[in-house]
């Protein structure tokens, strides 16, 4: 369960809600340009673009849930159970394990257009990071300020979709979401007009009735529609604090509240964290379920020529950094 969106208003922003019933030991992580990225079947990247995002705290490899690189290319992995199909490695062509996708593409590519040249021959394998971490069923949204795509590994092979909505949730596949959006073409942020019957005097009796029928449940299909409606009808000044505030307001409207979504195992899905990154400045903003204050980390304040992952510890996070402080420090 997750929701990912893009947002363009002067600058270009990318972010998501990460919805889970548990923590995955996540930390904001910067991968410097010289950290050696070692892949199961795709060789090594000794030098690459730097990136920042939320990852599992493992110093061997940046297990990103989402990230953006220094060129402004962003990518997120979202749960895709029941549809994701990975393949066995046969040592032919480009092969990436699902957990390697974000680090490889953001390390190597500066744009969606550049990344697309690798997708036609790509094989996503079922290699696990470790015996304790089997491959998660995922699909991915990738975006820069010019273009947004969805990458889905299915039984028939990898499918790549242009994504004009700039929104992604979970199963069913993206093609269904595209078709389903046509069911809501009559929704409007404005006051609705009577289309029921010309001879009946029907009129709205309250504000907001143009969006009657906008789904409010937590399902992936409903979150997709709701996030798209809120995003595409958003109006704010073109300045950083307004954009960031608006971005998180949109994510809040598709967030999971403990107790409202019960899993088959009897646990509760919650929005573990919400994040937003300005892809131009490299500033990563986030908040957690337990702490609604916005925190920020500036990728370009880190030592990007280093060769070790930079993990933001709890002590650093709890400083309560202002999300609009352009001089955000990074730990050594």
Task: Report a brief summary of the structure.
This protein is α+β, with helices and mostly antiparallel strands and 332 residues long. It contains six helices and 18 strands.
What report would you give on this structure?
- By secondary structure, the chain is of the alpha+beta class.
- It has helices spanning 101-108, 112-116, 174-180, 220-232, 240-252, 314-317, and strands at residues 2-9, 11-20, 26-31, 37-38, 44-45, 51-56, 63-69, 74-79, 95-97, 123-125, 138-143, 148-154, 157-162, 167-168, 270-278, 283-288, 295-298, 310-311.
- The strands form 4 sheets. Strands 13-12-11-8-7-6-3-18 form an 8-stranded antiparallel β-sheet. A 6-stranded antiparallel β-sheet has the order 14-1-2-15-16-17, with helices on one face. Strands 4-5 form a two-stranded antiparallel sheet.
- The relative contact order is 0.19.
């Amino acid at each position: 369960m997750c929701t990912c969106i893009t947002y363009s208003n002067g600058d270009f922003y990318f972010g998501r809600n990460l919805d889970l019933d548990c923590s995955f030991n996540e930390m904001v992580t910067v991968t410097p340009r010289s950290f050696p990225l070692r892949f199961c079947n795709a060789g090594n990247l000794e030098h690459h673009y730097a990136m920042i995002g939320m990852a599992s705290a493992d110093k061997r490899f940046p297990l990103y849930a989402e990230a953006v690189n220094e060129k402004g290319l962003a990518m997120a992995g979202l749960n895709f159970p029941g549809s994701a199909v990975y393949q066995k490695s046969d040592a032919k062509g480009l092969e990436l394990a699902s957990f390697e996708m974000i680090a490889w593409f953001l390390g190597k590519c500066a744009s969606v257009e550049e990344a697309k040249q690798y997708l036609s021959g790509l094989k996503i394998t079922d290699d696990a990071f470790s015996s304790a971490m089997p491959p998660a069923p995922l699909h991915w949204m990738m975006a820069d300020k010019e273009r947004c795509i969805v990458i889905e590994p299915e039984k028939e092979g990898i499918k790549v979709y242009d994504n004009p909505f700039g929104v992604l949730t979970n199963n069913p596949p993206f093609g269904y979401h595209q078709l389903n959006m046509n069911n809501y073409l009559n929704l409007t942020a404005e006051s609705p007009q009577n289309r029921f019957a010309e001879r009946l005097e029907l009129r709205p009796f309250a504000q907001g009735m143009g969006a009657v029928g906008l789904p409010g449940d937590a399902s992936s299909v409903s979150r997709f529609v709701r996030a798209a409606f809120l995003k595409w009808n958003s109006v704010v000044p073109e300045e950083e604090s307004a954009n960031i505030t608006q971005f998180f307001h949109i994510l809040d409207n598709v967030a999971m509240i403990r107790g409202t979504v019960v899993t088959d195992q009897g646990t509760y899905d919650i929005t573990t964290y919400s994040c937003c990154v300005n892809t131009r400045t490299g500033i990563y903003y986030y908040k957690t379920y337990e702490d609604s204050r916005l925190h920020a980390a500036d990728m370009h304040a880190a030592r990007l020529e280093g060769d070790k992952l930079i993990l933001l510890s709890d002590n650093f996070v709890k400083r309560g950094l202002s999300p609009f402080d352009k001089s955000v420090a990074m730990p050594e």
